Amino acid sequence: MFKEAWDDSEKSENKGMDICDRLRAIKPKIKAWQKVNYDQVHSHIDLFESDIQCKMVALQESQVDDKLRSDIVKLKTNLWDLYRLEERSW
To answer: CB-hemisphere CA count at 13 Å for 81?
Structure first.
């Protein structure tokens, strides 16, 4: 996708475009691609964060629940994976 957009910017009517102009020209295409491919990450992050919060409250109320602690650890692991994925998408 990026290579195709870059090549298209080279073929545009302004063949003397400098690199900044070319990057500006492909920015909307990259943003559209990012929205299609990474928009779901944000909603998943929100779900994991709220689920972790609920389980943390339940854990505080029950004090001793190994399954609940295990679930929280798994959710946090998945959440951190999504954070890394989101960061790479910038």
So the answer is: 8
Q: Identify the three-state secondary structure at position 54.
A: helix
Amino acid, single-letter form, for residue 84 = R
Cα separation of 6 and 2, whole Å?
Answer: 6
Q: What is the pLDDT along the chain (90 residues), one digit of tens a residue?
A: 667 776 776 665 556 667 788 788 888 888 887 777 777 788 889 999 999 999 999 988 887 788 999 999 999 999 999 999 888 766
Domain range summary for the chain, segments of one domain joined by +: 2-88
Contact 6, 26 (CB under 8 A): yes
